[in-house]
Amino acid sequence: MTRSAREILIRPLMTEKSMRQKEEQNTVTFRVRPDANKVEIRTAVETVFNVKVSSVRTATFEGKLKRMGRAEGRRPNWKKAVVALAPGHKIEIVEGA
User: Fold this and answer.
1) 65 vs 32: CA distance, rounded Å
2) Segments forming the whole domain that contains residue 63
3) In-domain check, residue 95
4) What is the pLDDT of residues 21-59, one digit of tens each?
5) CA–CA distance, 5 with 26 (Å, rounded to integer)
6) Minimal CA–CA distance to 42: which of 32, 33, 53?
7) Domains in the chain: how many in total?
8) Residue 30 · residue 70 · CB < 8 Å
9) Alpha-carbon distances of 67 from 59, 85, 88, rounded to whole Å
10) What is the reported pTM?
């Protein structure tokens, strides 16, 4: 099953921690599909942003339990990918828009 790069990368995560890592360690954090592997994430970032990736770290998160009155529901499970870029490469993400 071949997926396009735009299907694998859902959106960039712009938190305080990820912005600090971007400046200090040249890493970018993305929310990705839960069934995507590290090789797919690497090729997706390299093709979409035209950069060289040195490493990819992933973490899977379980969705939180939410309630509306008596009804219970669950948010979907999601996956985060921290992508370290090679020296000299940079991704410009719109900040604060």
Assistant:
1) 21
2) 5-85
3) no
4) 999 999 999 999 999 999 999 999 999 999 999 999 999
5) 21
6) 53
7) 1
8) no
9) 25, 40, 47
10) 0.87
